[in-house]
Prior knowledge:
Layout: E1 3-7, H1 18-27, E2 32-38, H2 51-67, E3 73-81, E4 94-98, E5 101-103, E6 109-111
Parallel strand pairs: 1-2, 2-3, 3-4
Antiparallel strand pairs: 5-6
Bound molecules: zinc ion.
Amino acid sequence: xxxxxxxxxxxxxxxxxxxxxxxxxxxxxxxxxxxxxxxxxxxxxxxxxxxxxxxxxxxxxxxxxxxxxxxxxxxxxxxxxxxxxxxxxxxxxxxxxxxxxxxxxxxxxxxxxxxxxx
Length: 118
Ligand SMILES: [Zn+2]
């Protein structure tokens, strides 16, 4: 089985639209593709989904799931940062737990996988 369950799209820090990623997965012979946009983690992660973008993200993935149902299994996931809002919305097929920020002794949170300067 060929699949990827950790896919970012334009709804967070990905570069491609959902439709383009789905077509690429089909072209490369994938059996399934799971989207995992960054769940709400403001203000630390400014590219993470807010409520409005999260609703649009869910709608867009579900729309692709229906449109491509005969060619690719599409999963709706979310990547929840441990510093953000962790919740289990029943709309999601799965949740990836991640840790993109760590606390410093001064109480400030620092990103662990941004630019070397940060
Ligand atoms: Zn990720």
